[in-house]
Structures are given as C-alpha cells and as structure tokens.
Amino acid sequence: MKRKLMSMALSAAMCVSVLAGCGNAASNAPGTAQTDEAVAQESISAVNENEQTTEAAESEVVDSISIESKDITSLDPWDTKSDGKNALWEIYEMLFEVNGFGGEMFPMLADADKGEFGGYDHEAGTGDYTVYLNEGIKDSAGNEIKASDVAFSFDSTYAAGQTSGWNAYEPGCVEVVDDNTVIFHFTKELDQMGELENIWARCFIVSEKAFNDSPSELVSDACGSGPYKLVSYTPGSSVVIEARDDYWQTDESKRTAFQQANVKTITYKVVTEATQFVVGLENGDIDMVEDTMTADLLTDFKDGGSYADSFNVYQFKDNLSYFMAPNLSSDSPMSDINLRLAAFYAIDTNGLVQAYGGDGVAAVTNTLGSNVFGDYLEKWDSDDNYQTTANVELAKEYLAKSNYNGETIRILTISSESYNKICQVILNMLKNVGINAEIDAYDYGTMSALYADSKEWDLYIQQMAASDYLVNVWSHQFDTSNSGTGLTTTFINDPEWQEMLDTVKTMDTHTDENLDAWWQHAIENAYVMGLMVEYKNIVYPEWMDTLLFTDKNHIVPGGCTYTSK
Fold first, then answer.
1. E strands within 255-386?
2. What is the pTM of this model?
3. Is residue 130 a contact partner of residue 182, using CB atoms and an 8 Å limit?
C-alpha cells in the first residue's frame, strides 16, 4: 500500500513523488548504491520545488501511538539541540515555525492577521522587527502567554548558551509594547540567509510564571501552550504526552498542521540499540521508528517482508551530518597543521561508511554538511584533498613533519552506539598511521561543558545541521558569535575566515564563488573534516496516512493523519 508523505500537507501528486515503497590511496567519493527507499536528495528537492501548505489535513483521531526515541535526559525548553526532545515540539510553541526542511516561515503564536509580513512588521534598513501575538494564548496550567513572556523566553534561551547564529541578538533587546506586541531591536538588519528564521523559529515561548512555579525550572517537568501536555517523564526511559481539551486556539480554521492533536496519547520510548527497534515493532511495544537502521533490519518491513502488511518504510538522507574538528588552541597538539593534515588524510570516509553499515545506511560528505542543501557545490565531490582521497603514505609524511611525539589524542564525543561505532573506526585509522588516540564519550551536557575547555580535548566528533542552507551548517559550528570570545568554539583565531563567512551568509553575496572560497580556506588550514551523513528510516504503521515533519526532519505525530487502527 502506498502512503503519503507531507512536509506540511502536500498535494496528492507531491506525495507520490516523494514516496518510498511500502512495507594506499582510497577514494572518498560518495557512494552510488541506491536502496528502494534511498530517495534522499530527490525527495527533499521535490518537496522544496512543490507547493506546500500549513493547512491541516483531514484525519481520524486515534487513541495512542508509541514512538522510538533517543535517550531523554532533560525536558529543558531552552535547549533545542539535544536528542530525545521531540515531544517538546508538541508541548511548546514558537512565535513562528518553518514549513518543513528548506520551507518558508509561518506564524504560530504570532497573529497571522496582523502585520505586513503575516505576524510582524519590519522597518527597512533597521534592526527593528515588531511581532504581534495572538490574544488568549494559555499554557496547560492556565497561564496566559503575554509579550513579557516572549522577552523572558528569548533572553533565557540566549543565556542558556545553546543558540548559534544569534549574533544580532542582545539580552534585553525585546521591548514589551503591550500584552500582545513586542519589538525586537536587533543590532542590525537581518539580511543573512535564514537569519530571522534561525532566531524566531528556535525559541520555545514559556510562561515566566510557569517557569518560576516549576520545582525543576522545567528541566524535569513541562508546561507549554502547545496542543499537548506532559503526563509523565522518566529520565532515560520515556515521555508521555496527551492532547489538551483546553487548547487555546479554538478556531479550527486558524490551526496549522503543527497545532493538531490527531492522537490522544503519544508515548516516546527510549530504545538505544537498533536491533531492539525491530523487536519493539514486532512485539507491538512501539508503533514507529525514526532512526538509522541497516538493510537487514529493515527487511521484514519492506515489500515481501513478514510485516509488510502492517508497516511502511520511508528513507531519506538526513540534514544532520557527522564531522571531526580539531582543537586549535595552544593547549592541544592539534594546533600543529601538519598533525591535523596527518589525521585527516588517515581517515577513509568511504571505509567509515562501509564499517557503519554500507551505502544504504550512510553516505560520505565532502564538506561540513551534505548535498541535501541547495547551496552544496558538486565540484567538492571531485576536488583533490583529504575530503575526497584518503592517503596513508601522505598522512605519515605529514606526521613526520609535525611536532607529534606520541601523545594520546583525546577524541571528545557523545556516548551512544552510533558515535562509538564511528569513533572506533577512526581510532583504528589514526593508529594505522602512527597517531595514538582514545575516546572520551559523555552525555550531551557533560560533553558540552568539556568542549568549552581547551585543555580537555583534541579532536571533536559531533553532528551539525541546518534547516535551510549549507552555509548555516557552517555558521552553527564556526561563527565566532557562538562563543562570545572572538574565536570559534574550536579555538580558531582567523578573522579573515570569519569575514568570508559573513560574506557568504549575506543574501546579496551568497554565491558559488564565495561558498567555495570559504570551504577551500577551511581545507587549506585543515580546520574541519566532514565524515558522513546517515539515511534516516521512518518505519510507520499502515494506519498512518501522512507524515508531518518539522524543519529539523523530525516527525510531529499529532499533526500526522490517520485511519482507524
């Protein structure tokens, strides 16, 4: 049975076009193998080229759905980067949302009927942006969401240090005009690619009273204005949310797909091992998986498989990709460019992909980011550098030129099955050229704290994404505004490179030439190495008609549509 996919609510023709079927030198060039569901870039391109709408589709309301989740360690609304927080997009709301990956911004809490631009006004040539709130917004505790809560939420999100690309934002810049109006006084006009969306659609609006009333300051409980409310939270195990019967937006004609509650109860269950995805689906413990799975694990759910009549499979290349970045501070031996080049030429990304699970599971990337973005340059796939060609002998030559004396290189990363698999392969590749290394893996919070200390790590393996442009992947990782120190978060002091980034981020100068210039500068200085991007698999039950995605490529279960179970 064919099922529809929507990145908001797509036309029938659109749904068909992006559907998957049911139920020593080594080249680092991208693999060409395709699986039945490997529609990746074609799907994303098709979504972006076709009309999308924020209007909600018809659906039956089902009693429950249980979904696999990554480890859930916190419900902190000020941190939208950590894994395992998909439930927050149904509990809380933002001023604006983005219409799927690469889509347009549209109002959520902002009043679409006011303002020249649908929810806001802007005085051209200035950094002043006026936002109009809907009236009568209330959270699940009955607290009214007002303009003062908008100011509180943006300052709190900024203070938490989990933002990137907010260089035009300053604490206190949100002026409260009245209960339903705020003016953002940014330090400049937001003329960079996706800059406004990256601020307004990256901050949950939280009642200051709800925050102060919470014993945990909303780290282990939740209270938002979204169509769902928290029922229970067990760290490392599950989050259960249920549809509110007192949701503030009572005008159905104004409710977007994101504001629907087509499931009464949604349970997110932590499942950390891919083999357990299959067990959970087969025994009915979970109804849906949104993660990476090897081809052998998917077999039972594809056409001809044992469970093909009960499930469908959709696969796409994620916008989140893995990379490796060195510590360039004087505290690390990686400040030596020859050692950096030795390490990078030692890494065979094609071999890494094969060790990870093969071409149907992941693909190499030849920059920081991948070709799912419209501003990716195909020339990077044929450039001759460490990204495209691993070379053990050349790596050893650079190592001999370096000041390396056998020190143990500390690889800082997140403690998880996928990161461990990647790091173990890289560890062996480094050892193969004579570089000793160890893996230091931690939970996200601990890792973030250690990452800020130049004495605690040498190589950093992490993932980075954007919801619109490749240049914003670069900005999220390397814009010096992210650190507040004038350096990048990897301790690079290169004003010229930052100026090049500012240029390519600006709409008028976002050109192929400037994109390539920034990336070639990164290559010449061995500042970063792209590793790979995963194919994400959605295994979903046959009683789901359409899938609704955020611009982060996460499913919004309440906005999906259903038939009777």
1. 263-270, 289-291, 311-326, 362-364
2. 0.76
3. yes
Please report whether residue 235 resides in a domain: no
Mean pLDDT within 535-539: 91
The answer to whether 23 and 300 are in contact (CB under 8 A) is no
Kindly indicate the confidence band of residue 1, based on its pLDDT and cuts at 50, 70 and 90: very low
User: pLDDT tens across 168-211, in order?
Assistant: 999 999 999 999 999 999 999 999 999 999 999 999 999 999 99
CB contact at 8 A, 224 and 77: yes
Mean pLDDT confidence for 60-81: 92
What is the distance of C-alpha 230 from the center of its chain?
Answer: 23
- Give the Cβ contact number of residue 555 at 10 Å: 20
- What is the rounded distance in angstroms from the CA atom of residue 510 to the CA atom of residue 284? 49
**Where does 437-528 show beta strands of DSSP type E?**
437-442, 459-464
Contact yes or no for 402/336 (Cβ under 8 A): yes
Beta bridge partners of 132: 181
Q: Which string of b and e fits 228-239 if b means at least 16 CB within 10 Å?
A: bbbeebeeeebb
Dump pLDDT digits (tens) for 154-164.
999 999 988 87
Residues recorded for the chain: 565
Residues paired with 464 in a beta bridge: 321
Query: Cα torsion for 145, 148, 154, 156, to the nearest 10°?
Result: -100
In tens, the pLDDT along 204-258 reads 999 999 999 999 999 999 999 999 999 999 999 999 999 999 999 999 999 999 9
Torsion angle defined by CA atoms of residues 530, 387, 353 and 379, in that order, rounded to the nearest 10 degrees:
90
Q: Which residues, other chains included, contact 445 with Cβ-Cβ below 8 Å and sequence gap of 6+? A: 73, 74
> Which amino acid belongs to residue 517?
A
DSSP string covering 382-397: T--STTTEEEHHHHHH
In a domain, 289, yes or no: no
Q: Distance from first CA to last CA of the chain, Å, rounded?
A: 15
Q: Would residue 205 count as lying in a domain?
A: no
d(CA 112, CA 109) in angstroms, rounded, equals 9
Helix (H), strand (E) at residue 354: helix 349-356
In the chain, what's the furthest Cα-to-Cα distance?
70
Name the DSSP letter for residue 275: H
Q: Which domain holds residue 462?
A: 320-534
Number of domains present in the structure of the chain: 1
In three-state secondary structure terms, 214 is coil
Q: How far is CA 71 from CA 75, 232, 438, in A?
A: 11, 15, 24
Kind and range of the H or E run holding 91: helix 88-91
**Which whole-number Å values give the CA distances from 139 to 91, 149, 221, 383, 393, in the listed order?**
9, 12, 13, 52, 61
Helix ranges (H only) for 357-458 are 392-401, 417-433, 444-451
Tell me phi and psi for residue 218, to 5 degrees: 65, 25
Dihedral angle at the C-alpha atoms of 166, 167, 171, 177, nearest 10 degrees?
-70
Kindly state whether residue 70 falls inside one of the protein's structural domains.
no
**CATH number, position 440:** 3.10.105.10
Question: How far, in Å, are 22, 38, 160, 423 from residue 314 at the CA level?
Answer: 8, 8, 35, 28
The pair of structure tokens assigned to 469 is: 């442009």
